[in-house]
Automatic annotation (TrEMBL):
<keyword id="KW-0408">Iron</keyword>
<dbReference type="InterPro" id="IPR051684">
    <property type="entry name" value="Electron_Trans/Redox"/>
</dbReference>
<keyword id="KW-0813">Transport</keyword>
<feature type="domain" description="4Fe-4S ferredoxin-type">
    <location>
        <begin position="154"/>
        <end position="176"/>
    </location>
</feature>
<dbReference type="InterPro" id="IPR017900">
    <property type="entry name" value="4Fe4S_Fe_S_CS"/>
</dbReference>
<keyword id="KW-1133">Transmembrane helix</keyword>
<keyword id="KW-0479">Metal-binding</keyword>
<feature type="transmembrane region" description="Helical">
    <location>
        <begin position="78"/>
        <end position="97"/>
    </location>
</feature>
<keyword id="KW-0472">Membrane</keyword>
<keyword id="KW-0004">4Fe-4S</keyword>
<feature type="transmembrane region" description="Helical">
    <location>
        <begin position="109"/>
        <end position="131"/>
    </location>
</feature>
<dbReference type="InterPro" id="IPR017896">
    <property type="entry name" value="4Fe4S_Fe-S-bd"/>
</dbReference>
<dbReference type="GO" id="GO:0046872">
    <property type="term" value="F:metal ion binding"/>
</dbReference>
<feature type="domain" description="4Fe-4S ferredoxin-type">
    <location>
        <begin position="180"/>
        <end position="205"/>
    </location>
</feature>
<dbReference type="GO" id="GO:0005886">
    <property type="term" value="C:plasma membrane"/>
</dbReference>
<dbReference type="Pfam" id="PF13746">
    <property type="entry name" value="Fer4_18"/>
</dbReference>
<dbReference type="GO" id="GO:0051539">
    <property type="term" value="F:4 iron, 4 sulfur cluster binding"/>
</dbReference>
């Protein structure tokens, strides 16, 4: 996790609230989407755990009030994640196509991006408030896209001979992953919490 990570949640407020008056702020969403897709080519879901503004919101704000219940397995299923990714992209493309080449087109596109930010952030807060604060990350369309593109790039590795099976790594994993099998799980967001928690320095990237 980077030092700037804990402050990135402010960007969510800027877009969600400021965007109601100044729709062009919605283009910050586009920048985030392009950046996360670009970084996923080399580092998988690294963006989620280090530079995602909403991830920062979940970790440093929502986690303080979350009920911290286990994330339902159905949210981790591709049977839910892929349709949600397709639905989100279809809705966004359709809404933009309708206003394409109309008057004030760029402002209207900003409105579309701001509204999508507000809707998905609201859903994320509802899920994260009841379950683990990172519950949305398991079903997030952009997280799913990163998984598809990046696969197992930049994997977490374990020196098994050093592991004492204390499970401290799994207790701090925001994605509720089984760290011992992490090499086979591309949903690792590379936040580094497990590495910091390991008393034997058995984990590394």
């Amino acid at each position: 996790m980077m030092k700037i990570t804990r402050y990135l949640w402010l960007l969510v407020l800027v877009v969600s609230l400021g965007g109601l008056w100044y729709p062009y702020l919605g283009y910050l969403m586009a920048v985030v989407m392009i950046t996360l897709l670009a970084t996923s080519v080399l580092r998988g879901r690294w963006f989620c755990g280090n530079l995602c503004p909403r991830g920062s919101l979940y970790d440093f704000v929502l986690s303080k009030v979350s009920r911290k219940q286990d994330i339902p397995n159905i949210l981790k299923s591709f049977w839910v994640r892929i349709p949600l990714l397709v639905l989100m992209m279809t809705v966004m493309i359709y809404r933009i196509s309708v206003i394409f080449a109309t008057q004030n087109m760029f402002e209207k596109i900003g409105v579309v991006l701001v509204s999508m930010c507000i809707v998905t952030t609201t859903l994320a807060i509802m899920l994260g408030g009841f379950y683990n604060s990172r519950a949305w990350c398991t079903v997030c369309p952009m997280g799913t896209a990163q998984r598809i593109i990046g696969g197992n790039r930049y994997q977490l590795k374990m020196a098994h001979e050093l592991c004492i099976d204390c499970k401290k790594c799994e207790k701090v994993c925001p994605m509720e992953l089984t760290v011992r099998d992490i090499g086979n799980n591309p949903d690792c967001i590379k936040c580094g919490r497990c590495v910091e928690a390991c008393p034997k320095d058995a984990l590394y990237f």
